[in-house]
Amino acid sequence: MQTIIQRIDPEGNLKEQLKEAAAIIRRGGLVAFPTETVYGLGGDALNPNASAAIYAAKGRPSDNPLIVHIADTDALERIASGVPESAYRLAERFWPGPLTILLNKSGLIPKETTGGLATVGIRMPSHPVARTLIEVSGTYIAAPSANRSGRPSTTSAHHVIEDLNGRVDMILDGGHVPIGLESTILDLTTEVPLILRPGYIMIEELRKTIGPVEYDRAVTLHRKDDTIVAKAPGMKYRHYAPQGSLVIYEGEADKVVRAINEQARRCVESGEKVGILAADETADSYPYGTVRQIGPRSREEAIAAHLFDCLREFDDLGVTRIFSESFEDNPLGQAIMNRLLKAAGYQVVEIR
Ligand code: TXA
Ligand code: MG
Q: I need a surface site. Which of 195, 200, 221, 298 has the fewest CB within 10 A?
């Protein structure tokens, strides 16, 4: 398949620029597009063949449900049934934006889109390209992150091209995304709403808006525990994984630096290609291997925005062993560490 790559001029007329992309969506094709969180791989959420094509293009197991993207709140009534009042309060406060809510689905949404589940994840993205694409295509857009299954999510078009060129009809290049981590997923079908995936919108803000909210047990895990079943089917698969083996070091900063350096030196001496993921503050302390500065600890948004980029860069460099600092000491730490721990397959060294 020949993939059309279209660069978007954010200053230009978006409706005009997105006409062809919308036509592709309408006829059941696939278009990768930027959102404020990560790039999405979009297809018509109401067309079972389009959903099947998304799974095929990603190489994704088809029991893993897709998030349905909407451009106006009225869509809630059509896509979901028995919409609770809390959904409207959340929509009012956080949409458009990086929050996905889970509700019981209506008959309009085919089971192919929800991986056979009776619930549906719904999100109204704030990125102008995403919103305009939904509006112009005149449907709802099912979109997982635009990466090959198991790989880090994509935050800029060249990463999407790397993973999906030749497998989708079109890739829209809208530059680097602003947030860089996928949306917070909140399950509203349980008695107490549960966060299934932490993201940019944090638990305290959700509690302020709708009262009690808890984390799903699989989210707060810092060690792999096979007895706990993740409620979001996608969270059970190996995820975000770079090609090299990744180990996270936790503990006091100077001790972590020393421990990583010791391992890095050994690996370099035995001919391995070493990558080190470090905060700006400590990046100069690592003499062995290739160091990637993820951002300053004082700006957790920067760390979130660069995490997937750094993991992909290590792949590009052919790195076989990655050692990473830990980044949980900030408000976004929960979301950042959730992705990093999965990328590491939960390999953590605690330094005392
Ligand atoms: O920020 C985002 O959410 C991005 C952009 C493109 O919007 N999308 C995204 O989709 O991250 P994806 O498919 O890569 O991750 C969605 C996660 C998966 O782990 C999936 O299992 C879970 O959400 N999910 C979706 N619908 C669900 C449902 N009905 N019940 C339980 N989990 C669901
Ligand atoms: Mg994904």
A: 298
